[in-house]
């Protein structure tokens, strides 16, 4: 897997794309986030898909605000023993 790529995404595609792929990417990142939280023994209570996607979209808007990036790649990782998300701009 290339650095900054989503696990399971061998092409290293951004988690933000036009069309129906965007929704599929949100589902993939959400599923990975939930699985990581469960593996670490964290509660997933209250972590709904809708709330999760709202946060991804807000993060995406912030990253893309300046206009110098065309997409955002979201990566699930473990920080201090907890599941976390990293938004990486794609040029």
């Amino acid at each position: 897997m290339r650095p900054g790529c989503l696990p399971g995404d061998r092409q290293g595609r951004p988690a933000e794309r036009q069309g129906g792929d965007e929704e599929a990417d949100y589902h993939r990142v959400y599923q990975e986030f939930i699985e990581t939280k469960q593996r670490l023994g964290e509660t997933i209570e209250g972590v709904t898909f809708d709330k999760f996607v709202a946060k991804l979209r807000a993060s995406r808007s912030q990253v893309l605000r300046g206009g110098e990036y065309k997409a955002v790649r979201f990566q699930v990782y473990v920080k201090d023993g907890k599941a976390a998300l990293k938004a990486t701009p794609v040029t």
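The CA atoms of residues 15 and 24 lie 9 Å apart. Residues 20-90 form one domain.
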